[in-house]
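Researcher: I'd like a structural prediction for the single chain below. Treat it as a standalone chain; there are no partners to consider.
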Amino acid sequence: MKLAIFDFDGTLLQKDTLPCLSKEWLRQGRSRLRCYSVWAWVLPVWFAFKLRLISREDMKGQAFKGFNRMYVGLRRTEIVEFFRQAYPYLKSQFNPSILGEIEAARRQGLHCVLVSGSYLELLQIIGADLGMDTVLGAKLAYRHDVYDPHGDTRFIDGQAKRNMLLEAFRHQDIDWPASRAYGDSLTDIYIMETVGEKIAVRPDPQLLDYAAQNGWRIMA
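Model: Treating it as a single chain, here is the predicted structure.
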């Protein structure tokens, strides 16, 4: 089996997920106070990244942890409904070129995988709409079907995404050299180096340099 592996943030979605979800939270008429209090926690982390005091991966991990406060007290069904209502806006921000790559991969008979550090419940909605075969993402922790802020909701960094991918297919006969992967940042290298065909999509400066030096395909 050959895989076509697609990253989400910055690759399929041309923006970062959390700001998009924040915008949707307000558009859906949900608590402004909760939204603003979450961003009061997240923004200092973002500024620290901009000042190069922390890495992009550290920033994303801390922002993910802070943003999860948005879901305190919500049932699983309420969170899924929030994501479902947010999806049309997110879809409007998808990279048309990547949508074309997904369609091409499906026609070629590749097993299409969406893998991200974003929320699994959201990714499942996206995957069902786009015809992805496998969806891998971060699992929110629940207690009695209500989001548990003290539970084991883990941020998935680049290496953890690779581990999650390998675990998902450990019982499958995968032709890794004939598989392909799409990513936008240097942290995606963990997965991209696992396959034979690497495609950098609107890459950050570090990935752009690495891709150019190694002769990878680069997409706008």
